[in-house]
Amino acid sequence: MNNQSISKEILYWYDNNKRILPWRKHLTKKQKQYFTLVSEIMLQQTQVKTVIPYFNNFIKKIPNLKKLAKINDRKLLKCWEGLGYYSRARNLKKTAKKIIKDFNGNLPESIEELKSLPGIGDYTSTAIMAIAFNHPFIPLDGNVERILKRIFYLKSEKEISKENLRKKKSFFGKSDRSSDYAQAIMEIGALICKPKNPLCYECPVSKNCTAYKKKDFDIKSKNKFNKIKYFEADIYKSKNKYLLIKNNKFNFLKNLLIFPMREINQKKFKSSLNKRINIKMSNMDMKITINKKNKKTYLNNSFLIDKVDIKNHILPSFTKKIFKSIVNY
Length: 329
Ligand code: SF4
Fold this sequence. Notes:
Endonuclease III, domain 1; 14 helices; single chain; binds iron/sulfur cluster; 2 domains; Nucleoside Triphosphate Pyrophosphohydrolase; 7 strands; alpha+beta
């Protein structure tokens, strides 16, 4: 198949199979820009099905860029609560302010200007250029990488480097429906060329796919093995209230409420007889021993929070998970 028939086949498949997503509705130009910005930032570290209800709620509460620029931080974080990576929400507000101040309220239409906005890097700028502005870009997300690795049967470290994958994108050619085309390719990765058991019999590019011919779908990726880290968390309770602190110590969950904790070594973790819990973060597996404390040690930035009142506080799911596991404390 040549480039032109590849794009035709892909778009034909997309038109008949795409998911109905809230940011794919028929929208005005301005809405399209805002919806794309919000959805792409939410999708940076999170799967589509998780993002959908958060996106709908966010748009309902903060329907446009002006409102976003003015929203108070508490309301903003409440809309983001549970989605994780809270710096994305803060950056989104900073971005809205900058767009209003420096770009007359319009999302800029160039890669360089988009990348000057907080929280927008290579991937998100190309996604916005393609999806919101219909420019011929194909964002290289995990889905697109996987398709390319399989089509070209890329296995070695050099072959799977970003640089090589960027070159290989030329396989897809162009289409005058750039917005749909970029989404179509990512959608094939999400729905058909899945990490396990790809549905090749439905795939519009199966004729060009070496992995399909060889029946070897194994994907090589740069090492992303989660590190295991060990922590000790202090649980101090007084009349049904628990002590939490504002996290200024760890890079993750910055400025959010967590139980006081510290990193410890594996030996100390293993020798502890306390209750243990495991929490999977995107970049590490956390193994935590729970220390019941009888004395309140003075801590800066600490708050006593009633368990029944949790919903009124902005708490990361991380802290909620610990709350759940200490139900009888
Ligand atoms: S034929 Fe199969 S392995 Fe190849 S791109 Fe399509 S879904 Fe992926």
